[in-house]
Design goal:
Shape of chain B: globular
Order of helices and strands of chain B: EEHEEEHEEHEHEHEHEEEHEHH
Strand content of chain A: 15-25%
Number of domains of chain B: 2
Structural class of chain B: alpha/beta
Number of strands of chain A: 16
Radius of gyration of chain A: 23 Å
Strand content of chain B: 25-35%
Oligomer: heterodimer
Shape of chain A: globular
CATH topology of the largest domain in chain B: Rossmann fold
Number of strands of chain B: 14
Helix content of chain A: 25-40%
Strand order of the largest sheet of chain B: 1-2-5-4-3-6
CATH class of the largest domain in chain B: Alpha Beta
Helix content of chain B: 25-40%
Strand order of the largest sheet of chain A: 3-2-1-4-16
Largest sheet of chain A: 5 strands, parallel
Number of helices of chain A: 16
Structural class of chain A: alpha/beta
Radius of gyration of chain B: 18 Å
Distance between the termini of chain B: 30 Å
Number of helices of chain B: 9
Chain lengths: 466, 281
């Protein structure tokens, strides 16, 4: 008999007033009992509507059934068949707009906590089992993967599982891409990311760090080095700025820089770690996405008194996940909605001393279907801040595009790739993740890496390799 | 990986290291830079490539021990390995239609000016070099510069080597003696590059400067290295580090350099503390 409670089993969390002063994980995860209880809420629908919402086709009802029976290892193995980074997905996937959106239990009450259960299975496996050496038939065929973020890791893992000799080229000194530099420790512990990457290494994936492709090797040179296929998962590494006066004042950060200092370089542990970050007294974060929430919550943890999210549309249009907005509010982040910055004000010697904003109201829907914000008359005001973080999105990094002839890209920088396969304008070169779509989600990047791995396998077999 | 093949002390606080980095050496060009990390908890710091040897597979860096990282680096010895060494980053300088050039190096900037002078010299361009230092003990690369320059002037602020004055004074003299330069390359402290640009603007001589702002990744990702050039924001790491000096907003660059000064001091003091006060910061 299923558990017919309309609510998800509550997940233990650090209390807001404690956690907004540390970088430990917010959510503590289910215990075995909680997981079993939540798993019993699953109705085991024959049609499996939840799976249609998963970009990597995790066999959701199957793994949940095993959790309900207390067979946690088996649950993990089922997830791992299609998703090689479950501990990550369970934490950062927007389940509410994917699997859980289609859950029948969501019609009357809350959907099954699929993400929480996925996380539980992955965490349980990590702490109770060591990765098994898979018996894989290896080939000599070499594939290069550029970038070790979610797209690259997934593509590399799948190809290695098929037996290919896969090498990842990563520009930073640590692999993981946005999972390491972007998403904060309190949402996605970095040790866990490294453990997932270790699992991929066990599968045979080689990782070369400190390699900026486009500079140290061109794609053509990689082909000459014997890589029969290449996957580009170089991400959206180019920060967008507003183009308003004062953006080059001291105290203005791109969200990329602010978060990279904190996450990758561990500036939150300065001076134990050498890289500093300036947090100031009051902080304005411009933007309403997950990255903006991450930056705001990080600033709060580093001791800022007031942290504002400044967003030009209304609550309803906030692109961030509901859970992130909710957590941010709990932690004391102040939302300045329908507010648009017009300039950043500075002191004589070049430091931020405020941000001039105007209030907005919503007009007619625009191309994206969202109501267009219009400036309210006589609404100019100054926000008292000394740090401004610009989190209005990232564009694909142009390094590879600018050094590869015949690689077709959109005007805005995205690599043009077939949606189902990731095939680019150059045979044997595939692309996926944010490098193709512009800044999106971890799971979409993983989905594209997975599709590309399949397509690369077919391509190589057609070419007579394998 | 990244083994220190050779270490030399050029002046009391300036050191040269030849690093094993075959892939980078294969591609490096004058004007490009590398980013390195010494230790697991260390910062990523950019250093301009001072020289490279493709056959030997080495890249040479020259640095002044000013902050915690450069002091730690300075303590490393031949045979030891750097933790991370990535490059070549930035856009290499291109020289076209130049017959005669002046290369100006200020202090440590001479180390960055040297590969540029060498490249110009190898292209058959007449090179006049002016390098300046605070005093004669700080002079570096005098021999190397003289080998790639048709004329070399070494000036010191205090006149302790015989020629007292700033590099701008010496450059001005050369111009007024009737030397016509198609190009000036000025590399050194921001304030020096600004002064050279003010001078060369008067004579309408194209001037290239090399910017070295704070940065993390060096691939255009963080945007920390923003420089205003001709009214537009550029990223020194990918658009530069070389820029048209007459277009650079030096005052902004000088202000931006102050962003982490207080932290640098703290890191250094903390470092000195742990060394039992042995460091003479």
């Amino acid at each position: 008999m299923p558990n017919m409670s309309p609510y998800k089993v509550k997940i233990p969390e650090q209390p807001p007033e404690i956690r907004n002063k540390n970088f430990l994980e917010v959510s503590l995860g289910y215990t075995c009992e909680m997981a079993k209880e939540e798993a019993q809420r699953c109705l085991q629908c024959k049609t499996k509507p939840c799976m249609a919402g998963c970009p990597v086709n995790v066999k959701i009802p199957d793994f949940i059934l095993h959790i309900a029976c207390g067979e946690f290892e088996k649950a993990y193995e089922i997830i791992n068949e299609t998703n090689r980074l479950p501990a990550i997905c369970g934490r950062v996937c927007p389940q509410e707009s994917q699997c859980e959106k289609f859950c029948v239990r969501g019609v009357k009450g809350e959907p099954v906590g699929i993400g929480r259960l996925e996380r539980f299975a992955a965490d349980w496996y990590m702490s109770n089992r060591s990765p098994k050496a898979e018996n894989i038939h290896r080939t000599q065929t070499k594939v290069a993967v550029i970038g070790s973020g979610p797209a690259g890791l997934t593509c590399a893992g799948d190809l290695a599982g098929m037996g290919y000799d896969v090498t990842i080229f990563e520009a930073f000194h640590t692999p993981g891409g946005v999972l390491m530099y972007g998403i904060p420790e309190f949402r996605l512990p970095k040790d866990l990311v490294q453990k997932e990457i270790e699992n991929l290494k066990q599968l045979g994936v080689k990782i070369n760090t400190n390699m900026v492709i486009g500079k140290v090797f061109s794609l053509e040179e990689l082909q000459q080095e014997g890589y029969q296929a290449i996957f580009i998962g170089s991400g959206a590494g180019l920060p967008n700025f507003m183009g308003i006066p004062g953006e080059n004042l001291n105290g203005v950060y791109s969200s990329n820089e602010f978060l990279t200092r904190i996450n990758l370089m561990k500036a939150y542990r300065f001076p134990q770690y050498d890289t500093p970050v300036r947090v100031g007294r009051n902080v304005a974060v411009i933007g309403g996405g997950n990255v903006a929430m991450d930056a705001a919550r990080s600033a709060k943890r580093l001791g800022a008194e007031k942290v504002y999210i400044v967003y030009r549309r209304s609550e309803k249009e906030l692109p961030a996940r509901l859970e992130e907005v909710h957590h941010a509010r709990e932690e004391g982040i102040i939302f300045k909605l329908l507010t648009n910055p017009t300039q950043i004000l500075g002191t004589e010697d070049g430091w931020v001393q405020g941000m001039e904003c105007v209030e907005m109201e919503l007009g007619e829907p625009d191309k994206s279907g969202r109501r267009r914000p219009i400036e309210k008359k006589n609404s100019k005001h100054v926000l008292d801040v000394d740090i401004v973080i610009i989190a209005i999105g990232q564009s694909p990094n142009p390094l590879i595009k600018s050094t590869t002839q015949n690689l077709d890209t959109y005007d805005w920088g995205g690599i043009i790739a077939e949606e189902a396969t990731g095939a680019t304008s150059i045979p044997g070169i595939y692309a996926g993740g944010d490098a193709v779509t512009g800044a999106a989600t971890v799971i979409l990047a993983m989905g594209s890496g997975k599709n590309a791995a399949k397509a690369i396998d077919q391509y190589l077999k057609r070419q007579g390799y394998y | 990986m990244y083994k220190i093949i050779k270490k030399e002390t050029l002046s009391p606080s300036v050191k040269l290291m030849k690093i094993e980095a075959a892939f980078i050496a294969r591609k490096a060009e004058p004007g490009q830079f590398i980013i390195l990390r010494v230790s697991e908890k260390g910062e990523r710091i950019p250093l301009t490539i001072a020289d490279y040897d493709r056959a030997e597979g080495t890249v040479t860096i020259i640095f002044q021990e000013v902050g915690k990282t450069t002091k730690e680096l300075g303590k490393m010895e031949e045979g030891q390995e750097l933790l991370d060494f990535v490059g070549p980053l930035g856009t290499a300088s291109h020289f076209e239609n130049i017959k005669k050039a002046a290369v100006i190096g200020g202090g440590l900037g001479t180390a960055i000016a040297y590969p540029q002078a060498k490249k110009l010299h190898n292209l058959g361009i007449e090179v006049h070099s002016v390098i300046g230092f605070r005093n004669k003990d700080l002079i570096i690369l005098e021999n190397e510069m003289s080998k790639v320059s048709n004329k070399l002037i070494v000036a010191t602020d205090d006149g302790s080597n015989g020629i007292k004055g700033f590099v701008t004074d010496e450059l001005k003299k050369l111009i007024e003696q009737g030397n016509t330069y198609d190009l000036v390359i000025a590399i050194g402290p921001l304030i020096m590059m600004k002064a050279v640009c003010i001078l060369t603007k008067q004579y309408d001589i194209k001037t290239i400067v090399s910017m070295n702002p704070v940065m993390i990744d060096g691939t255009g990702m963080c945007g920390g290295c923003r420089v205003t050039v001709g009214g537009n924001t550029k990223f020194a790491c990918v658009d530069g580090p070389d820029f048209d000096g007459h277009e650079v907003d030096f005052d902004e660059a000088i202000r931006r350099q102050m962003m982490y000064k207080s932290f640098e001091k703290q890191a250094l003091e903390d470092h000195a503390c742990r060394l039992g006060g042995a460091s003479n910061a």
